[in-house]
Design goal:
Layout lengths: L1 H4 L3 H34 L2 H27 L13 H29 L8 H29 L2 H29 L3 H29 L6 H12 L6 E10 L2 E9 L6 H18 L3 E9 L15 H14 L6 E9 L2 E8 L7 H12 L5 E8 L6
Parallel strand pairs: 2-3, 5-6
Antiparallel strand pairs: 1-2, 4-5
Helix pairs in contact: 2-3, 2-5, 3-4, 3-6, 4-6, 4-7, 5-6, 6-7
Amino acid sequence: MENAHSPDPRSVRYREIRKVTLIGSVIDLLLGVGKICVGLFAGSHALVADGVHSLSDLATDFLVLFAAKHAHRAADAEHPYGHGRIETLATVALGLALVAVAVGISIDGYQRMSRNIVIQHGMVALLTALLSVLSKEWIYQYTIRIGRRLRSNMVIANAWHSRTDAISSVIVIAGVGGAMAGFSYLDGVAAIAVALLIAKIGWDLLWKSLQELIDTALEPEMVEEIRHAILAVDGVRACHMLRTRYSGSDSLVDVHILVDPALSVSEGHQIGERVRKELIEQVEHVADVTVHIDPEDDESTSLSEQLPMREVIEARLHREWQQDGLDGDVERVVLHYLEGKVHVEVFLRAQLEGDPAARAAALQQAARRARDIGEVQVYASAIDAP
């Protein structure tokens, strides 16, 4: 009953992203309007530009809200792997936005180096810029903490976008202070230095998201964690062809596991389901697992892939048995495709004429004459007592 009332993790995650983004949006709106008004009053073009920068953060906030809402939708017929890549695309857009901000700050900083800036109400502008630094640094710390806990590159990227606004306000403080002291070129030098840092952050986020879009594997230590969890499942002899990829904040896993070749189909399936269940429960970031059951290691080559299917094999076997008059003794045939041969288990009918052991030996000998047949085992279904 607890599971029936437990909240959907996707909904919880979306609500947390929405909350932190809306808080940031309110701060961006208030700071943007405030810095523009004070900038116009103090005659600081830098503060006005910084205010415009804060208002531009609203666009990225709305992008995050849109992406978060749609990325957390459940999988459907058109998107069987879910919608996590929407978050990835949003992170790409945010990375590009950071790089663009860096370019804009660099150009503006270069132009300020040769510009004579005169500030009329310097202290008012300084206090406003300082308030912006403190506010944006606080929202950065809050957002980055949520982003790391949710493993959301999109939220982390938006946090860094908030920090660029704080950094641009530091530039305003340097510019206003430098202009008040007669060293207005310091504003441009600081702007270019900070722009390089912002560009590096934006590029790192952009590159990581682009790698995700081309299905780059998880980090080696994460893959080893997944491999260890697979091998710990009872019945798994080995695993190979372990493939991983990101989908937003989630990880998707494909793996081939090696089991005892004599197991039934249902038992092999049960082991595969246990692997899937254990990975999703034990490895936090794994959202979906596809398990392929192998009776033998086929990572490099499959010796059995050219063997014919049951219809052809059974026809060969029955042809050999008919030649010796044994075809009517067979109740059921089980086939095992291993090591390039078809190994056969034959189950006899309940009632047989003559010596059951002799009939079984004859069936075994006749079956071995058929092409592509390996080992042959004959079992009695039931033998009536005399």
